């Protein structure tokens, strides 16, 4: 009986797939998303960058409320977002609200570029978990067709139910090579699974195959949207007064959208003799590792795109200066699986030494972003050169600096 039903489903799928029009299916999905005025759902997110051991996972619960009539409303609905059961985020149509560590922070999103722009910043984890299409207010379009070039819609199955599967595949020329093995093009694929009966979004996937054997992958799974009580309003789920009664203190000095400038490592900073782990397993103090006058450290981690782009240049520096009065190595204080990380980089035939340090080293040295290159005078134990980020020009700058200060 089960096999017969599968055969019938398969035959119907073949017939329907031949008739499906992407634009018609997308129009129905957008119509449903805009018509859903309030509800709640759970979202689970995972991202794989370079290697499976880079996998990052997160989850959250979202409750949202769209306006009953068009007014001076942002493109995104009011929402309450509980991340990993602990961090409270909300948006009241104007102010972004964050509650954590017994403090409440708020900021007016209208004075900048709006809540949608804020959620897309950085690695865009907020927009991925929250799902901008679900939260989109009328008259904006939840899923623009232009974002899905060459898309196709087919009938599929998800969790035992009929579903629409929308895919978009496009090849882009590789303009930034993250590793020496990157090909000339990157194949970028988008996939969206939508319940064929309710038109709820159920899963979003995207992956980029850079033809180097290390695909990058993102997946977000959404639960069906659950209805809220008819009289439920945003204030029932988010109230600063209620948070204050729970012990939270309103921090009026906090800035969310534009974080205050953090301290960074600069020339003249003193460097402690912190412990590092070398490839052979030995743990030594930074200044006990080498008797050379200068030490060049490249702070990096495996999932950092600019870090990967900087590695060929670091290898060239190492070959040029390895017999001179400077010790050069890459220092990783983030990746935990040291052996897999080193094996990954040795696959590109890099020869510079790789060392690992404790994560608290980054805080003590004020390393707030990656990559960072510093040169330390081992006699004074002070920073004599500091450089942030990566560019071809930055490689020339550091090489010229070493030529001036490092003896033959």
Q: Give the count of structural domains.
A: 2
Indicate the proportion of strand residues.
25-35%
How many separate helices?
Answer: 10
Biggest β-sheet description: 12 strands, mixed
* Helix fraction bin: 10-25%
Q: Give me the CATH architecture of the largest domain, please.
A: Clam
Radius of gyration: 26 Å
Taking strands numbered 1, 2, ... along the chain, how are they ordered across the largest sheet?
7-8-9-10-11-1-2-3-4-5-6-12
Poorly predicted sequence stretches spanning 5 or more consecutive residues: 5-16
Which CATH first-tier class of the largest domain would you pick? Answer: Mainly Beta
Shape: globular
Could you explain how this protein is built, in words?
The protein has 408 residues and is of the alpha+beta class. It folds into two domains: 22-250, outer membrane lipoprotein receptor (LolB), chain A (Clam), CATH 2.50.20; 275-405, Glutaredoxin (3-Layer(aba) Sandwich). 24% of the residues lie in helices and 33% in strands. The chain contains ten helices and 19 strands. It has helices spanning 2-19, 22-35, 115-119, 125-130, 132-135, 240-245, 305-321, 338-346, 360-365, 392-405; strands at 38-49, 51-65, 78-83, 87-91, 95-100, 103-108, 152-158, 161-173, 185-195, 201-209, 216-222, 249-250, 275-277, 283-285, 294-300, 326-332, 354-357, 372-377, 382-388. The strands form two sheets. A twelve-stranded mixed sheet has the order 7-8-9-10-11-1-2-3-4-5-6-12. Strands 14-13-17-16-15-18-19 form a seven-stranded mixed sheet, with helices on one face. Strand 5 (95-100) and strand 6 form a beta hairpin. The longest helix is centred in the N-terminal third of the chain and has 18 residues, at 2-19. The radius of gyration is 26 Å and the shape is globular. The relative contact order is 0.12.
């Amino acid at each position: 009986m089960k096999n017969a039903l599968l055969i019938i489903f398969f035959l119907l799928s073949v017939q329907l797939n031949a008739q499906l029009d992407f634009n018609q299916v997308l129009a129905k999905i957008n119509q449903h998303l805009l018509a859903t005025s309030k509800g709640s759902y759970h979202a689970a997110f995972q991202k794989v960058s370079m290697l499976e051991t880079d996998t990052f996972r997160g989850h959250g619960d979202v409750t949202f409320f769209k306006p009953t009539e068009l007014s001076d409303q942002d493109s995104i609905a009011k929402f309450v977002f509980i991340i990993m059961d602990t961090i409270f985020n909300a948006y009241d149509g104007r102010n972004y609200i964050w509650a954590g560590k017994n403090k409440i922070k708020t900021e007016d999103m209208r004075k900048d570029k709006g809540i949608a722009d804020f959620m897309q910043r950085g690695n865009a984890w907020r927009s991925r978990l929250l799902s901008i299409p679900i939260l989109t207010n009328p008259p904006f379009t939840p899923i623009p067709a232009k974002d899905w070039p060459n898309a196709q819609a087919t009938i599929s199955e998800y969790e035992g139910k009929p579903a629409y599967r929308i895919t978009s595949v496009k090849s882009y020329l590789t303009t930034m090579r993250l590793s020496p093995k990157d090909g000339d093009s990157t194949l970028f694929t988008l996939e969206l699974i939508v319940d064929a009966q309710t038109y709820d979004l159920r899963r979003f996937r995207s992956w980029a195959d850079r033809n180097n054997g290390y695909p990058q992958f993102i997946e977000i799974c959404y639960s069906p949207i659950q209805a809220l009580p008819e009289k439920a309003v945003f204030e029932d789920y988010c109230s600063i007064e209620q948070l204050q009664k729970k012990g939270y203190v309103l921090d009026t000095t906090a800035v969310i959208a534009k974080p205050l400038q953090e301290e960074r490592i600069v020339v003249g900073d003193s460097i402690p003799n912190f412990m590092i782990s070398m490839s052979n397993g030995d743990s030594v103090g930074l200044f006990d590792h080498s008797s050379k006058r200068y030490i060049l450290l490249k702070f990096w981690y495996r999932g950092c795109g600019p870090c990967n782009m900087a590695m060929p240049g670091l290898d060239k520096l190492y070959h040029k200066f390895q017999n001179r009065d400077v010790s050069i190595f890459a220092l990783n204080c983030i990746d935990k699986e040291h052996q897999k990380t080193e094996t990954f980089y040795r696959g590109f035939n890099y020869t510079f030494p790789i060392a690992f340090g404790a994560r608290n080293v980054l805080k003590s040295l004020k390393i707030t972003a990656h990559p960072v290159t510093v040169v330390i005078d081992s006699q004074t134990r002070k920073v004599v050169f500091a450089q942030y980020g990566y560019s071809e020009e930055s490689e020339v700058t550091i090489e010229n600096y070493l030529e001036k200060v490092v003896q033959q």
